[in-house]
Amino acid sequence: MKQGCRVWKYGDNVDTDVIVPARYLTTSDPAELAAHCMEDIDPGFAAGVLQGDIIVAGENFGCGSSREHAPIAIKASGVACVIAGSFARIFYRNAINIGLAILECPQAAAEIQSGDMLSVDFESGEIHNLTRDRQYRAALFPPFVRDIMATGGLIPYTRKKLLNSGARTGVRQEGD
Predict the structure, then answer these.
(1) Backbone angles phi, psi at 130, to 5 degrees
(2) Contacts of 85 (CB under 8 A, 6+ apart)
(3) Residue bearing the bigger pLDDT, 87 or 3
(4) How do residues 87-134 score in pLDDT, each as one tens digit?
(5) What percent of the chain shows pLDDT beyond 70?
(6) For residue 25, what are the contacts with CB-CB under 8 A and spacing of at least 6?
(7) H helix or E strand, kind and range, residue 1
(8) Nearest to 13 by CA among 87, 66, 106
């Protein structure tokens, strides 16, 4: 469970061009993308975000183009989780693929304010606003999706599954 994480609050329809402006898409370096994360909507975000902070936003977070750069920039900036009323479907899938924890909870998204401190239990979907002493429950992902996110994304998850299946079958893996 993440304890005492500070909130960065944004509104509805935060698009991928705001999350990481198109002028920075010439790189795929996560650290470089993180340095420009949210700069067009919140110029102080990249310099002020701390490891474990949380983004809370309204409806349709991550709309716009399908670039994977957006969730990579958020994750590389140190954000532990994004809570939104809803996510654009492509951003939603890209976040899962790269291992960025996301939770959909319209009530939490509407009530939580910038600067609030949260405790989030991704396994149960429980969100506790420590500042306002309010509890919320987000929609849960199936266990295999939570495993993908906990493992760091689809590639590390698949690698782990393949290594584990090779160990069970006695098949040697590269490097054995």
Answers:
(1) -70, -30
(2) 12, 57, 58, 59, 60, 61, 104, 105, 106, 109, 110
(3) 87
(4) 999 999 999 999 999 999 999 999 999 999 999 998 899 999 999 999
(5) 93
(6) 67, 69
(7) none
(8) 87
